[in-house]
Structure formats: C-alpha cells, structure tokens
Design goal:
The protein is of the alpha+beta class and 266 residues long. Helices cover 21% and strands 32% of the residues.
C-alpha cells in the first residue's frame, strides 16, 4: 500500500475563459472563490496511481475520476489510497478537515482494449461562436463536431499540476510525459471550442490510455456529443473525446467527459 500523499492545490488558470475559475464568477454561484480545475483535481487523484504503476498506467491504464465538491487555490489536501491491488488502485482526495472531495478508481489491465479509430473530422483553428443551449448541443449531436489540434510542450499553462513541477510524479516531472491535467484538459478544450460555455463545470471523466504523450508531440482531438440531460436545475452533457497523433493517427487516450454546461441560478 502506498503512503498517503499531501500537497497544496494549484489553480493554473485563474484567467481562463471559463470564469468559474475566477473568484468573482465563482462567488456569484455560491462558491468561496475560483475553483481549481476538475482535471487538476483528477491529476491529484491519479498522482499515487502513476507512482504505483508507472508507464503501465500511461500505456494501458483506465481511470474513473469524479469531483464531488470544489477545491480552492492554495488549499492543502491529502490523497488517500483506499484500495490497492496488483492491477487496481482507488484513491480519495480530502481536505485537512477530512471532508472527501473527489474519488478515483483506476486499473491497469493486462491487455489494453482496442483503441478508437481516427475519423478524420474537419480540423479548424478557431473556436465556434455558438451559445451553449440544448438546441445547439442537439445540432452537434446530430451533425457532428469539429476537431482541434494541440501540441504538448512544457510551456503550456497546464504543464504542471503543482506550482513546483518537480513535485509531480517522475514520469511527468523528469521524463516529460503529459500529465493528467493536460490530457484530461483536452476534453474540456475541444468541447468548449465547439460551443461557447461560460461558466461551466467539469464533473467526471472515464479515460483509457493507450500510450504516453511525449514532449513536442502534435495531436488532434476529435469529439462527439453522447448524451444530454437535466438534473436538479443543471444542464449536463456527456461527450466522447479521442486524442490522436497528428501524423500516425495512433490513439493516446480515449475520454468520456461529463460536465454541467449550464448551472442553475445561485
């Protein structure tokens, strides 16, 4: 069993176009301040998983990460490993008070499942200027979405999930592979580039890795809208996002994202 891991939360994007990460907008919806991105919370949950399984996790690991309550910039937290076996690891992120905020379930199968196939969706350069309404999401669901290209490098604002990048797991801090806040963040970026959402909340991801994303790699991300529903006044979207090598079309990671694209009034 790995030791519990403690760190201080880092909001890498206080000036994000998603203003839920800013103090002013977050407080309007009843939060104490700007939220640490859900993908960053997920990276914290997966830190012990990466330390335990190493490259096996990057090459064929599966993870379910869910954020249940917000984490704030500079807040100290602990990630507890609640269950660990030869091929699986469960973690829970807690405040110092012991309040659980997020959970992850990860496993490393002996053989990875068959990866998604590159569709060749049209790649565009600029975000689509279309408001996030149920009708517009239904159009995307019926007609398809645009793909977007990205490049992984250490200058990216999500290149580290901690203020000191050397405190990340060695695969990210030393060997330079893309960390989970960047990998899972791609699902956020390609969704918000297809439809304008502000503010919105990342809730959970189910991700399957197929290869580690090395520095300097150009990628293409394709997305499709899988489901839309309303619950307790919030409007939700489920999206399937696949990350491919721009040249070989090898799949690095397949992600199913759940997000609230329209929050109920505070």
């Amino acid at each position: 069993m790995v030791d519990n891991w403690r760190a201080t939360a880092f909001n890498q994007v206080p000036n994000s176009t998603n203003k839920i990460h800013s103090d002013e907008m977050a407080q309007r919806f009843g939060f104490k301040g700007g939220l640490v991105p859900g993908v960053t919370v997920s990276a914290y949950l997966l830190h012990p998983v990466t330390e335990t399984f190493g490259m096996e996790f990057l090459e064929r690991g599966y993870a379910y990460c869910r954020v249940n309550s917000p984490l704030y910039d500079h807040e100290t937290f602990e990630v507890e490993t609640t269950d660990q076996g030869r091929q699986h690891c469960h973690t829970c992120l807690k405040r110092n008070s012991g309040e659980p905020l997020a959970i992850a379930e990860a496993e490393v199968p002996v053989v990875a499942p068959t990866p998604p196939v590159f569709r060749g969706d049209p790649v565009v350069d600029k975000p689509v200027d279309m408001p996030a309404t149920r009708e517009n999401f239904e159009r995307l669901q019926a007609n398809g979405c645009k793909a977007f290209s990205y490049r992984w490098n250490h200058e990216h604002e999500m290149s580290s999930y901690l203020r000191d990048r050397l405190d990340m797991a060695d695969l990210y801090a030393v060997e330079g592979f893309a960390n989970p806040s960047y990998i899972l963040g791609i699902s956020n970026w390609v969704l918000s580039a297809n439809i304008y959402m502000n503010p919105w909340l990342h809730l959970e991801t189910r991700s399957q890795n197929f290869a580690g994303l090395a520095a300097g790699t150009d990628i293409i991300s394709e997305i499709s809208v899988a489901d839309l529903f309303e619950k307790k006044g919030h409007e939700f979207v489920d999206a399937e996002v696949n990350i491919f090598d721009a040249d070989s079309h090898q799949c690095y990671t397949a992600i199913r994202l759940r997000a609230i694209y329209r929050l109920r009034d505070a």
